[in-house]
Specification:
Helix content is 78%, strand content 0%. It is mainly α. Helix 2 runs antiparallel to helix 3. The longest helix is centred in the C-terminal third of the chain and has 37 residues. The protein is elongated, with a radius of gyration of 20 Å.
Amino acid sequence: MTTGPDLETEEGRAAYRAELRAVALPLRWSGLALILLAALFCVGASRGFLGLPAGSVVIGYGLLAAGWALVIATTYLRNRHHRRRMAELEGVAQ
């Protein structure tokens, strides 16, 4: 069992915040990239940029849904990690 950061000190809390920020970071960035790509795709399709037909907005909406699904999944993974770490720290304290 690994020892967790000491949450009683400012350094320990900063280390734990950094640990939480690192959880599922590639998925979070992928979700953000898909959301931005979807926005560009929808605007491009609705205005006729790049020769995209107007019906291809549906593809943009699909990309948008996939991006938000990734963001929601990373929130779930981060919360699960937090619950496990708190249970682990509580077990060490007893």
